[in-house]
Specification:
CATH architecture of the largest domain: 2-Layer Sandwich
Distance between the termini: 56 Å
Largest sheet: 5 strands, antiparallel
Structural class: alpha+beta
Number of domains: 4
Number of helices: 12
Helix content: 40-55%
Radius of gyration: 49 Å
Strand content: 5-15%
Number of strands: 12
Strand order of the largest sheet: 2-1-5-4-3
Shape: rod-shaped
Length: 466
């Protein structure tokens, strides 16, 4: 914006200077020419009395020679009898016109010729002539033009500097407001713009931006409290379900349902902690829960969990996972979030494909760091009539439409991507690229790798997801 304002000031100043300096330059050239011509005419007029009263040609020749000895421009006297005194001059039509009693000036290749008619001379009408060279007609014009050009450049420079100083007073507050908006977009709800800087309109924008930031913080706080309250309300039905599970006569059934309730209760507790997490707490604060995990351990655990249901529904599972001794594959995603991603894509296979449909799970390390998780099936594939299935709330199969949106957001949060395509067998293929962790996150992951799985694997058959 500063550059555009400077260019605008330079353009306007240049137009004004051109409108003023060009006529002034032409006027200077005209004045210089008139000054040279007036000087030459005065010189010629000083000879008119001598020519008009001359009684002897020799005396008049001597007078002309004395004038030419000191004159700036050579003078010629053409007498009525054809005698030419001084520098030779051709008898042009202009000379003949002057001889008939008309003084004039005409343009010639060397400059401008001045002809003064003298009537009443003893030898008849005479003509006094001289030529003013072009150099004398433009003497001093170039210097004045250079001075005017320099003055114009200086005025343009001054105008640009003044416009730039004025632009700083406007651009600075605008840049600060833009910087604050970017900080708000990154989640820094403490960012505020200085409402006392800049013109009144920009101050109004800064005030509105600060009000918007405060409003966003209030809405987020209300949303977190609502989510936390809703999660807390789930504790009552969880307690009732736990009592029902403890009253079962079959110990294996009681253990299986109790294990499911433990996992559900941990998920509810995690939801409450996430909802009431302080806005100012940094996710990268040393000592906090690790923001990375071993993707191999997490995916292996989730595949083991879903394999039980695959056996129940006659599905064959093709696995391509790192071995237990291949080392960890660290990704920039918490273990709970990656588990939710794996559950979402594997749960879709069971929810949207018929029983007996085979599927494959592949996990590999990316050359640039991180991991790539690919889940493909031989089912009917993704429906093209329901729009983008990764859009939140969009579902063509009667579900909530949140699963793939959760996967997409988790992949983006790790610095990766989510891609949907058609599998070689004709079904759906979901490719999830997960980014690598930062240095201190990777150290925390290595130190806490033994904490996963968060719950023991259940040999019992899980309930079919809905």
């Amino acid at each position: 914006m500063r550059r555009r304002l400077a260019l605008l000031a330079a353009a306007i100043t240049s137009l004004v200077l051109v409108a003023f300096l060009v006529p002034l330059a032409l006027l200077v050239r005209t004045v210089a020419a008139d000054r040279a011509l007036d000087a030459a005419i005065s010189q010629l007029q000083s000879l008119t009395s001598a020519v008009a009263t001359a009684t002897s040609t020799d005396a008049l020749r001597l007078t002309v020679e004395q004038v030419n000895a000191t004159a700036e421009h050579p003078v010629t006297v053409l007498l009525g009898d054809g005698t030419v005194l001084g520098a030779p001059v051709a008898r042009t039509p202009a000379v003949e016109l002057a001889a008939r009693g008309r003084s004039l000036s005409v343009d010639v290749p060397a400059g401008q010729q001045i002809l003064v008619s003298v009537q009443g001379a003893p030898t008849g009408p005479a003509v006094i002539a001289t030529v003013v060279p072009k150099s004398d007609l433009r003497r001093g014009v170039t210097t004045i033009w250079l001075i005017l050009l320099g003055l114009g450049i200086m005025l343009v420079a001054v105008g640009v500097v003044v416009a730039d100083r004025l632009a700083v007073s406007m651009v600075g507050p605008i840049t600060e407001a833009a910087r604050v908006s970017h900080r708000l977009a990154r989640g820094d709800l403490e960012a505020r713009a200085r409402a006392a800087a800049g013109p009144p309109e920009i101050r109004d924008v800064a005030t509105a931006l600060n009000h918007l930031a405060s409003r966003i913080r209030e809405l987020l706080r209300a949303e977190r409290e609502t989510a936390a309250d809703l999660s807390h309300r789930l504790r009552t039905p969880l307690t009732a379900l736990r009592l029902d599970a403890e009253s079962l006569r079959d110990p294996q059934e009681a253990e299986r349902i109790g294990s499911d309730l433990d996992a559900l209760e941990r998920a509810v507790d995690q939801a409450i902690r996430d909802a009431r997490r302080s806005e100012s707490a940094s996710a990268d604060t040393p000592g906090s829960s690790p923001r990375t995990c071993d993707a191999a351990a997490v995916v292996r655990d989730r595949v083991e969990f879903w394999s039980a249901l695959a056996d129940d529904t006659d599905r064959t599972v093709e696995l391509d996972l790192p071995g237990l001794h291949d080392g960890p594959i660290c990704v920039a995603l918490p273990a709970a979030d990656l588990a939710a991603v794996a559950d979402a894509v594997l749960g879709n296979v069971f929810a949207h494909t018929p029983d007996g449909t085979p599927f494959a799970v592949q996990l590999s390390a990316r050359p640039s760091g991180g991991a790539r998780l690919v889940v493909r099936d031989a089912g009917p594939g993704l429906s093209s009539s329901s729009g983008d299935p990764t859009t939140r709330g969009a579902s063509g199969a009667g579900s909530t439409g949140l699963g793939l949106d959760i996967v997409r957001r988790a992949a983006n949060a790790s610095g990766g991507t989510l891609r949907l395509s058609e599998a070689p067998a004709g079904g759906a293929e979901i490719t999830i690229d997960l980014g690598p962790p930062r240095r201190h996150d990777a150290d925390m992951t290595a130190a806490t790798a033994s904490l996963w799985p968060l719950r023991p694997a259940r040999p019992a058959r899980p309930a079919r997801p809905r």
